[in-house]
Every structure is written in C-alpha cells, then in structure tokens.
Amino acid sequence: MVCFTATIVISLIALIGWTTGFLVLSRTSERFIPMAPSTALSFIGLSGALLLHRAYPARPPVNVVVRGAALAVMLFCLSIAVEISTGLPLGIEKIFYRSPQMFGTVALGRMSLITASCFIASGMSLLLMASLPADSRRGKSMAAGLALVVVLVAAVHVLGYSYGTLVLYGGKIIPMALNTAVAFLFLGIGQVVLAGPQSWLSRQFAGASTRALLMRSFVPVTIMMIIINGWIGTTIFAHVVNPALTVSLLSVLSIFVVLLVSSKIAIVIGERIDRAEEELSRTNHELKDALATIKTLQGILPICSSCKKIRDEKGHWNQIELYISEHSGAEFSHGLCPECLVKLYPSYYNADKKKQGGEGGE
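^ thats the sequence. predicted structure below, dont judge the formating
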C-alpha cells in the first residue's frame, strides 16, 4: 500500500505542476524532462486500481472495476505507443496538453515509448492478478515477472540519472523522466509484493528457511554494493588520476561490507543450526528411552503341552502369565471362565444358576 500511495503522491505533484504552470513540481531539475500529464493520470488510475485490489481482492464488483481500469490504461498507452512507433497523428495526448513546448528536440508533456511500454506491462500484471484465482502459482508468477521487468527498466533510468548518464537525452526519442522512473520503481515493487507468496519470485525470499534468509540478506546487499560502487566511481572518484587506486578502494569497501553481512548471517544461521542439533539430540534420547521401555515377544516359545509353562532363556520353567508379563508390557487379571467354574466350583455354579432361574420366573 505504501508503494502505491507513493506513486499517487508523485503523480499528483506532477499534475499540480502542469495545472499551475509551475513545472518545477513536474520534474526534479531544469535539466531533466518533466513527467507528462498523461503519465501522471495513468499512474493514478493504475495505482488506485491496485489499492482497490489489495483492499478487496475477493469482491467481484471490485474486480470488475480493477480489470476495467487496467484495460483502460493498457489501451490508452497502447494507442500512444502505436502513435509514437508509426507516426500516426492520433492526437490522444492533446486532450491534456494542446501546445507543447520543446525540450531540446522533443516535445514536453508527451509520454515516452518506454513509459507506455512499462504501463502496458504493469496493466497486464494487474489484469492477471485480478482475473486468475488467488492460488494460481503460474498466474501470480507471470504477474510478478511483468512487474519485475518494470522495476528493472525503471532502475536503469534511475541509475542513469544518479550517475549523471542521462538515458536517451539529446536524441529524437522522448526519455523517461526521473520522477516517472521513481514512480515505476514504487509501482513495480508494490506489484511484486502484491503477487503474494504464490509467485516464484516471492517464494525465493519468503519463509524461515535458510535459503530465504540468505536471499533476503545477500541480494539487497549485493544490489546496494553495485549501486554504491558505481555511484562512487562516477562521482567521488571520477577525477582520480590513478584508476588502480579507485578500484582498490572500492574493493576494500566491498570486502568490508560483505564480511560484515556474512558474519551477521553466520551468527543467525549458526544459532539456528545449534538449536536444530539440540532438538535432534533431545528427540533421539527420547526415542531411545521409548525403545528401551518397549518389550516384544518374538520367535518360537517353548511351552509345556500339559501345564502350559514356558521355558525361558536360562532353562527355567515359568507360569505363562509371569513370562509374558516380564517380556512385554501386558498385565494379567485373573478370573474363571464358565467351563472352569462348573468344573472347580459346581455348587456355586448351580446355586447361581438357580438364583438366575428364580429371578426369571418372577
């Protein structure tokens, strides 16, 4: 939600700049091209639809609105892309800004082809998330993949602005504005997160597994180190005469950061492994204790055919109930079956039978 809100805020500021004529709000510097009004409106429409989808993902009426917004943005940007690519005078953006000023060799207030392509990818990502079932791993992975493409394209432009190497400036192709690239970063990251843990990309980072922990730790650090090294090399050390000194200093900085992160991760993973080993050892001891208390009877038991005594391993003859009790967990409760009761206690049996017969006669 934070990412989509940030995208809307950036776009609203740009729109205010266009409506008030204070174009400094639409761009971060006089040297940079501003965000076009059509771009700002597309951001607001797409981000608003994403906020609705996040807040009410299972409501069919909301999904209809979300899919409609995604399709509208996609068709709008597709028409702009066709106009730019073919030169057809569709004049769609004249609705927002009729007489554009020039910024070098390109017109102000017009969406770039790269921006339109990113909107089409973002709209397709939202359309997949709103149309497919929530548990569709393939659909979520495709949606996250499209959003990741947008993030990568935006990151290239943001890095270009950061390093002072402006992408597509000076030619006849309209470049992507800096605030547009930043807004796409927020939008794309938000869509990747919104795709949820079902997507392939999120599964690499989510959860408590060691793999996820390593991914969450090393991937951001690696990205930041590459960005910082590039920025330092193109700004702070740009005028250093000795290139070897620059490389050496950046290498030392990278090694220090990697060692710091690695030691932190080693501590966390080491504690997890220690806890797992302690738990495994405790479980093994409990299992051994449980197995030690289990007694089973196996093999052939020598038993007397007359008195039914059983011979043990020492050659002693034991009562069958004593032998079974000592070699298993069974216990005996003695009683008499009806046949033995007649044989051993006939008087008691007859008296009991007469008593039962008398009660039945009544």
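Residues 243-293 form the longest helix (51 residues).
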